[in-house]
Automatic annotation (TrEMBL), chain A:
Protein name: ABC transporter permease
Keywords: Cell membrane, Membrane, Transmembrane, Transmembrane helix
Cellular localization per UniProt: Cell membrane
Pfam families membership: BPD_transp_2
Keyword NADP attached: no
Transmembrane stretches, start-end: 6-32, 44-63, 69-90, 97-115, 142-164, 197-217, 246-266, 272-291
Membrane topology: Multi-pass membrane protein
InterPro entries per record: ABC_transp_permease
CDD domains reported in the protein's UniProt record: TM_PBP1_transp_TpRbsC_like
Keyword Membrane: yes
Species whose genome carries this gene: Bradyrhizobium denitrificans
TrEMBL record, chain B:
Originating species: Bradyrhizobium denitrificans
Protein name: BMP family ABC transporter substrate-binding protein
Lineage, broadest ranks: Bacteria, Pseudomonadati, Pseudomonadota, Alphaproteobacteria, Hyphomicrobiales
Keyword rRNA-binding among record annotations: no
Pfam families: Bmp
Alphabetically ordered keywords of this record: Signal
Domain ABC transporter substrate-binding protein PnrA-like, chain residue ranges per copy: 35-315
Span of the signal peptide: 1-31
Gene3D superfamilies cross-referenced by the UniProt entry: 3.40.50.2300
């Protein structure tokens, strides 16, 4: 061990490290989308929000020198995009899926446009907490250098789970998602609930973006997200609109993303395209196993346009 | 685009541009302003492949009588044909540089056949006699610079394990991996290069994961062949590993970790092309060159490079610049044990066999499929 040669142990370690490093954006976007969809609306635009968040976080961190201000800016940008989505969707006969797709293109396009001058400079990064101090193995230490945002996400998942179940606003969100009529009968504005839920979702997705540009991989460029936002939206369906399942699913996706490179590094070189596709194969498999022609997806909010 | 229903307006514009092209494009003197179109697959300030070409384009902008137009982020699909069409028909471009590998066949060939009076120059393609005469391909033997970077990496690595983050197993990438490894073996015969293919030219998360996996395996010097080396360079430097760069000089990103690097020298080449056209000569359809021809260059050495490494690397560099030096000199075995270049065979840089490379040499850990 002293020479740092850990052989095949690299693979599980890389999957663990990958689960921690790669999963954070998935986690934030899926938790955010979970809130939005529980309120009865789908925001497919979170891919755009993620990229906008990454860009604004990097820009603000570069200009002010404070990565935490960057995270805040990313969240606010996300909330703003969420408000835009909810605002357009409040108009009569507007389809939220179509608005989401257009906002996805708008968000990425705007981020690429505004982010042009940010590709070259290097911005201040978010710090990491060293949880691997107990180990002499440098690989373990590297895998356990954990960012605070990841921990926040991990804490947020059970809080959301609890909030949906037991708090008043959790109930309101669920009511708006299950039956808009019931919410109206109770005297609440469904549009306001959905506006707030979509803004909260956007806020979280923006923060997810800030992790990409400010921690890992840790710089702004146009290929940064490569579809992670849209994967995370799909992940919510996969996780049955349950925040705790979102957490496990994000970890699984993160680990699966690390599998391809890790296997190649220990000499398993054939079929690396297949291993790189592991997260998607995983999704397909679970979808096929759990699907049923007799009922709609369990846990799906009844007001969602895909289930209605 | 539906050419059956092309509007009259488009036809007129196209016709006008064609006449203009015929009149100005290949005529010796550039009487009127000549428009040159550059097409990039990614962003032109990506610290990588596209930035290298954009630096070349910037060198042309400084010359009088030239107008340079650029389009970024054009995918390697029909989209590039549309971009070329609009550069030709709307901007009147007479010389086009579609710079990405996948633009060549069938897209650029199709356009070159359609517009026989215009000139198309592709980076990295393999022009052959079957292809249109107004199309050309140029490329630098950047493996010469990679070979020198390999020597430096071989001396610097303590573990003897080098890492290579690569996009796809195409001949040019394999040639770089092989040259880097052969160079490293000059310095340390036991050196190995572990290669990881990410599957595409720009995959920041995969590149970062690949970098981390390699370092976990004990690799202490890394290099790469992807479009934007920034991710690899920054992540490797954070983990305390050394890097050698690619495409352009990335030392500003990691001054302490940056040893040296293999860079393109398009800012020297593109003005040469334009001068050839202006002098009434035609650009050779198949244009190649290395360090000596100023198509590629080696980054200045970083402070971590030892005296011994500098001396050895400079010695080989002088040979490249002087009478020439052969990297792929038999006997060379691939990493499966087959002899790929027999003893006594010297595959010089211009040998077309090298452009079909489909193997990894002994010392590389990895596979092409």
């Amino acid at each position: 061990m002293a020479d740092g040669n850990i052989g095949l142990w690299t693979v599980p370690l890389a999957v663990l490290g990958g689960a921690i490093r790669v999963s954070t954006p998935f986690l934030f976007v899926s938790l955010g989308e979970c809130i939005t969809e529980r309120a009865g609306r789908i925001n497919l635009g979170l891919e755009g929000t993620l990229v906008m968040g990454a860009m604004s976080a990097y820009g603000i961190s570069y200009l002010t020198g404070s990565p935490w201000l960057g995270v805040l800016a990313a969240g606010l940008t996300g909330a703003l995009l969420g408000a835009l989505h909810a605002g357009i969707c409040s108009l009569p006969r507007v389809n939220d899926v179509a608005v989401g797709i257009s906002l996805m293109l708008f968000g990425t396009g705007l981020a690429f446009f505004l982010g042009k001058p940010l590709i070259e400079p290097t911005a201040a990064r978010l710090p990491a907490i060293d949880f691997g101090w107990w180990s002499d193995v440098p690989q373990v230490r590297a895998a356990l250098r954990i960012n605070v945002l990841f921990l926040l996400g991990v804490v947020l998942a059970p809080i959301l789970f609890w909030a949906f179940k037991t708090t008043r606003w959790g109930l309101l969100i669920r009511t708006a998602g299950e039956s808009a009529d019931a919410a109206r009968a109770m005297g609440h504005s469904v549009l306001m609930i959905r506006l707030r839920a979509t803004m909260a979702g956007g806020f979280l997705a923006g923060i997810g973006g800030s992790f990409l540009s400010l921690f890992y991989p840790g710089s702004w460029n146009e290929g940064l997200s490569s579809g992670q936002g849209i994967t995370a939206v799909a992940l919510v369906i996969f996780a049955r609109w349950d925040p705790m399942l979102c957490l496990w699913a994000s970890l699984a996706f993160g680990g699966a993303a690390a599998l391809g490179p890790a296997l190649q590094s220990v000499g398993v070189t054939s079929g690396y395209h297949l291993f790189n596709a592991a997260p998607y194969i995983l999704t397909l498999l679970i979808m096929i196993i759990t699907c049923s022609p007799k009922r709609t997806l369990s846990g799906a909010p009844a007001e969602l346009s895909i289930t209605r | 685009m539906d050419f059956g229903r092309i509007s009259r307006r488009h036809l007129l514009q196209g016709g006008a541009a064609l006449t203009l092209g015929a009149a100005a494009g290949l005529r010796p003197a550039f009487a009127a302003e000549t428009t040159i179109g550059f097409i990039y697959v990614g962003s032109r300030d990506d610290y990588g492949y596209n930035q290298a070409h954009a630096q070349g384009a910037a060198a042309l902008k400084k010359l009088p009588g030239l107008k340079v137009i650029e389009e970024e982020k054009v995918p390697e699909t029909d989209a590039v044909e549309k971009t070329m069409e609009s550069m030709i028909n709307l901007d009147g471009a007479t010389l086009l540089f579609p710079t990405s590998f996948g633009y060549y066949n069938p897209h650029m060939i199709k356009m070159a056949t359609k517009y026989p009076k215009l000139r198309f120059e592709h980076c990295g393609g393999l022009w052959s006699e079957k292809d249109p005469k107004n199309a050309g391909s140029y490329f630098g033997y950047i493996d010469e610079a990679q070979y020198i970077a390999g020597i430096v990496a071989g001396y610097t690595s303590k573990s003897g394990k080098l890492g290579f983050v690569a996009a796809k197993p195409i001949p040019q990438v394999l040639r770089n991996i092989n040259a880097f490894t052969l160079g490293a073996k000059l310095a340390n015969p036991k050196a190995t290069t572990q290669v990881i293919f990410t599957g595409d030219w720009s995959m920041p998360v995969k590149e970062a994961e690949a970098t981390n996996s390699l370092i976990d395996q004990g690799v202490d010097v890394l290099t790469c062949h992807v479009d934007g080396p920034k991710t690899m360079v920054e992540n490797a430097a954070r983990r305390g590993a050394f890097v050698t760069g690619y495409h352009v000089n990335q030392s500003p990103l990691a001054p302490k970790a940056y040893l040296t690097g293999a860079e393109w020298n398009w800012e020297a080449l593109y003005p040469k092309f334009v001068k050839m056209l202006a002098a009434g000569e035609s650009i050779p359809n198949f244009y190649r060159g290395g360090l000596k021809e100023e198509l590629v260059k080696v980054s200045p050495y970083g402070e971590a490079v030892s005296e011994q490494a500098r001396k050895h690397a400079d010695e080989i560099k002088a040979k490249f610049l002087g009478d020439g030096y052969t990297i792929f000199k038999g006997p060379i075995k691939d990493n499966k044990g087959n002899t790929v270049i027999t003893a006594g065979t010297e595959r010089g840089q211009k040998d077309p066999e090298l452009e079909k490379m489909d193997y990894l040499v002994e010392g590389v850990i990895g596979a092409t499929s």
